[in-house]
Design brief:
Blueprint (H helix, E strand, L loop, with lengths): L2 H28 L2 H24 L23 H8 L8 E5 L4 H5 L9 H4 L5 E5 L3 H23 L5 H15 L9
Antiparallel strand pairs: 1-2
Helix pairs in contact: 1-6
Length: 187
Amino acid sequence: MTSPQLKKVTDDIEDALERVGKRMSQTLKNRTDAQREQLRRIVRETRERDKAYRHQEQNVRRPINPYEQTGFGSNTTRRYRDEFFADRRNRNSNAHVVHHAIEQQVLRRYRNMRPPITAAEMNSSQNLRGIPEHLNGDVHLSGIRRMWNQFYKHYDDSNTTPTRQDLLDFANLVDDAFGDLFDPPVR
């Protein structure tokens, strides 16, 4: 992706994030005081849980560095939720949605990418993110979805196939935008 193309995609993403932020702000204004207090309590509990998680991180099967760049590892199972929660033993699997930093649909959209992305790479721990269930609609299904839609539109319009590095770079942009809302936080 050339620098002007990346700038255009970045500008489109910033516009989309601004719209999502305004929508979320309006949503918060419409909530009752009780709902706001409940949301504050959830945020406090999430922060406390993250503090406890950081103290227990040495018990994790494989050390995880939340500040490392998005990448591909290898996974021996196709059950990516099992992989995600095996690395994060103290997470409640029912309270989280597991998101692929580089989405699964790139396997279908860009079949002719060389070298191809394997299912083991796609479902590796390094490519998985936890999103708290209560944020799934605004973060996963809205903000992240819009960003990836812009990415796909760019490559569809230019009739080109992104490289693995293009995908990794874009996933890092998404992590920069929403990583503080993931559980555990990224970036």
